[in-house]
Specification:
This protein is mainly α and 167 residues long. The chain contains ten helices and two strands.
């Protein structure tokens, strides 16, 4: 199942993964032990896995929105040191900046994708997600962040590179 998840993230997210913006995301450090891009790939894989678990219970999930939203959820963090004076402001403003960046990259987002990106920081921000897909990505973001903090930087990077090249 793990390899299928990775292949599907790569397939669904190809346009994003091959973009200049995502190349920048793969270069910018995030959570001190990974990159924005590696983190976003991890979030997409976790969210897609959660989606498939829900589907096993006959709960429909829009996988394309989940993957696209997850891959774009932190694009607003790019250039963080020049954009935000501190982490608190980054935490609150980057979802809106990510929404703008994703819209520019993809040339239009669905309402569901907008919800996923704009509300992925809940409950640290106060507006809850409106779609189950956005809840899944928000949960996947928290799971990924915890994993990244606990794992070593070397293991984070190896895992992300494996997922980028397994398609």
């Amino acid at each position: 199942m793990k390899d299928r998840i990775v292949a599907d993230v790569n397939s669904i997210g190809r346009e994003i993964l091959e973009s200049k913006e995502f190349a920048r995301a793969l270069e910018q450090t995030h959570h001190d032990k990974t990159t924005v891009g590696n983190h976003s790939i991890e979030v997409a894989c976790i969210a897609l896995k959660l989606s498939r678990r829900l589907k096993a219970f006959h709960i429909p999930v829009n996988e394309e929105a989940v993957v696209r939203g997850a891959l774009c959820h932190d694009l607003g963090i790019l250039g963080r040191d020049d954009k935000y004076p501190n982490n608190f402001i980054c935490l609150h403003r980057h979802p809106k900046d990510s929404l703008v960046a994703a819209d520019e990259l993809l040339g239009g987002l669905t309402e569901m994708e907008k919800d996923i990106i704009a509300n992925h920081m809940f409950p640290l921000t106060f507006i809850p997600p409106h779609h189950k897909e956005a809840v899944l990505v928000s949960c996947a973001d928290k799971i990924s962040s915890i994993r990244e903090v606990v794992r070593s930087a070397e293991k984070n990077n190896k895992e992300a590179m494996r997922k980028m090249h397994t398609a």
